[in-house]
Amino acid sequence: MVRGRISRLSVRDVRFPTSLGGHGADAMHTDPDYSAAYVVIETDAEDGIKGCGITFTLGKGTEVVVCAVNALAHHVLNKDLKDIVGDFRGFYRQLTSDGQLRWIGPEKGVVHLATAAVLNAVWDLWAKQEGKPVWKLLVDMDPRMLVSCIDFRYITDVLTEEDALEILQKGQIGKKEREKQMLAQGYPAYTTSCAWLGYSDDTLKQLCAQALKDGWTRFKVKVGADLQDDMRRCQIIRDMIGPEKTLMMDANQRWDVPEAVEWMSKLAKFKPLWIEEPTSPDDILGHATISKCHNRVIFKQLLQAKALQFLQIDSCRLGSVNENLSVLLMAKKFEIPVCPHAGGVGLCELVQHLIIFDYISVSASLENRVCEYVDHLHEHFKYPVMIQRASYMPPKDPGYSTEMKEESVKKHQYPDGEVWKKLLPAQEN
Questions:
Q1: Where is average pLDDT lowest: 134-148, 202-216, 268-282?
Q2: Average of pLDDT values for 73-83?
Q3: Least crowded by CB within 10 Å, which of 54, 174, 330, 404?
Q4: C-beta neighbour count of 3 within 10 angstroms
Q5: Burial zone of 410 (CB within 10 Å; 0-12 exposed, 13-18 middle, 19+ buried)
Q6: Which pLDDT belongs to residue 213?
Q7: Which residues are known to be catalytic?
């Protein structure tokens, strides 16, 4: 039962000093401090349930996202949760169509990251009140209710409400069997934890050997900074994992289009399944294959232009569950496999819900489908992901798995948390 009026929204700047260990380093982001704008919404309901939402950032700039969340807060405060979920499309559009904030978007960049954090908190609250994890809330939802959560503005030339409803109704067939399958086997994953650019060859070998022991069969390596270095590191990994296991590559938007073609012609001998983000995510025609984008409109054009072979959704760069639903449905229409982006702070926790729902209710296929996993920072979450046999096991706790441990938030809050009080004076010296 949905209940309560939203009485409080707070947002905190939470940062982890991952750059000190080279964790998360890639060709474009050489010193990331994995961070999050962490939103908590409270209601006047007696149950005391809180909704927690995050959006992932890399350190500096998190304070800008925090400002954007505070600028959006008036759209949320004093609203009944029942009214929000009863007209989720209208609420989504209210957040994304603020007449003044839209000027510094629209539906992309800082404002959209902030929108995702707020909406993620609303979905967490709704699912907790219903006593279900978000994936189960979505799976059990009537197709018409699901469609009512989506803003179809700008995408009706590719996906109409009628199209979406037809896809979801077809997805009802065999749904119970697929849900049982997920609960028993989980959703297949690949690991990016072994091959950050900030890691030495010894670290790379050690982590790769451990991952193989743990049963991983799919590995992603960061490339794009130096061709000879890429050749050496890819050779190390391919030698370790053998010819049969899957290798992916990620250039994190480093190259121009001709540079990407030339670079990948040299790396092709390592037989990568894909090259992720070879160039600017806005360069539709320049993409042979690309992953993350800022919104459903970019995804729509990439699909129309046949500019990708794998599609990567993101639970924070897109406008939460609402916008991801539209992209999953478009991917189904074009029969493009969805292989979500994850990692960072809480992205694995979030995206597992979306991809499990996608398999059960939309795609009904695991062919060429796999979800990213990065083994960092899960210990800071109250309901961390569970990986078994290199697969995401469906979460059973109610909510969106986004609630962080209060002790971790306090310790890593920037700049006043205990961790940063120690680090900042040292960095200044």
A1: 268-282
A2: 98
A3: 174
A4: 14
A5: middle
A6: 94
A7: 222, 341
